[in-house]
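Dear colleagues,

As part of the handover before I leave the project, I'm documenting each prediction I ran so the next person doesn't have to rerun anything. This entry is a single chain, and its sequence is reproduced below.
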Amino acid sequence: MFGCHQKKKESYTIDEIHSLHKRIDSISEDSVYPLLKNLERAHLSLPSYPDSLRAENNYLLGRYFQKRRELDSAALYFYNAIDMVKDSMTREREGYYFMEAFDTQYDLGLYGNCFPISEKFKSILNPDDQYYWLSLAHYWEERVYLLKKDYDNALAASKERVAIARTKDTLNLPEALIGQADILYYNFGRKEEAFSILESLIEKEDDWVPVSKRRIYTNYGVYKYFDGDYQAAFQLYLKALENAKLVSGKEKVSGIGNCYNNIAEVLLDLKQYDGARKYLDSTRLLGLKNLRKNIQKSLLNYELRLALENTRSSSVVREIQQEISDHQDELYRLQIESELLDLTKANEREKVLLKEKQASEIRTLKLQNRSILLLISIGLLSIIGFLFYQSRKLKFEKQSLQNQQRLLRSQMNPHFTFNTLYAIQNQIKKAPDEATQYLLKFSRLLRLFLENSMGDYIALEKEIDSLKKYMDLQLMRTPVPFEYEIHYINMEEDELLFIPPMLLQPFVENSIEHGFSGIDYTGKIDITLTLEGKFIACSIEDNGKGLIDSEKEQKDSASIRLISNFLKKSTKKDLKITDKNTINPQEHGLLIRFLIPFKLTEHD
């Protein structure tokens, strides 16, 4: 009723618009967009309405599209919202405008757009009163610099964040210093400085909350573990465990489980197998279902390692392997039970509909006094319908198989295969050992492509492995050098996810064969995979010639047409190919974005 009432009203006062904005979460989702657009057109375009109302309206529109995972539209409205914040941040709410604007650009992989947002945000903040937001802006920049492997600027941003935390935001000082220590240790190899930072935090541990102390001791333990000082790592992990048990909230169980696993790993390296078994049993007692997936995986791997190192009996190892298999089977069984329940309900509904249909047919037969003739007719129609259904089903399966075969042929196209074999022939004459390695890699790639093409869904890890091998082989063959990187956001490469095979390679092939053709600089391919709800958002970016010179090749690619059609049907979203030159004249190359459906098991 609320949403319908708002549609009928033709004008609003400023106070009424304020009230609507505050109550937007209580309005039905279907009514939100029409209401906000109506306010934008009929009222907020008038000079008499303040910019703060316009900014809030754009922010709420951005949130609407963000919930629908339409990030391009969300980014536009969030940008409009921050554009209306002029010289200073007068309301805490405006900080969220900038936060969402930054995060949306980051999720889209448009890292170059992130810095203008953070720079404007810093310029309007009062460092004396709004130090939390200023620290957050430096943290945003630190994240982007690390992703771009610009470690010097990442460290500089981290130092700014630490300086603010030391003087004004001491509650967040541990997190800021831990981040700085990680950069020094992992990216600069300045281990002693990283150790010193964490030791200074330990000296004042009474000032910190348990979750911060757990992170301090865990990170320090990891440093010591990587340095081979297992005894020190063991003691630090024990301290981390003490504090993990004091944490409250939903992350408590996973935090404790992670500490148990870390301690068990150290004890395995120290050959203290009884102790390792005790801590692994403690992790298991927490309940596998209560732990994050990465902690579950570590537990099962450490248990298998313990069985392999602590016994020569193959039966014990088989028992552990069987347990891992049973765990996967249990997940599969639960999924099957859920599907069977849905199928049973569907069958019951179909039976009801079938009975109603039969009753209706009998009544019709009685009224028309032609029961026998109609029964025969219905039988014939049923047979024809069944045969028609089977014919359509076989046709669809055949078309699906043909599509897979076409896509496979497009991956291993004759041009690439001929050039590869020709290159191997030349290498045999010049360098037989290198030719052998080249031929071995080529044969492995062929086998991977053939294996991957056999299933509807394959493990993400296998798909990425075949893609890497393909690019490595191309590096050996093509005259133009190029680099590639694969980034993961909200996920890991070995995440237990299954995706349709052979979706990424045709785009990478276009970049190498067409985008890099004739360039006089080193090519670069960046692939970013982001776990977003029911899909994996994929962006493939290169610095090649762009659409200006390769538009025809893009349009003529049969594999890309097949992929585009498949993605449109499975995700309801179009494949987006953008020439970066149209966004920024200083850049060149292509940016390709699309959503990939995934399943949690191969047979889901």
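Confidence is low (pLDDT under 50) at residues 1-8, 338-346, 549-556. The longest strand covers residues 523-532.

All the best with the project,
I.
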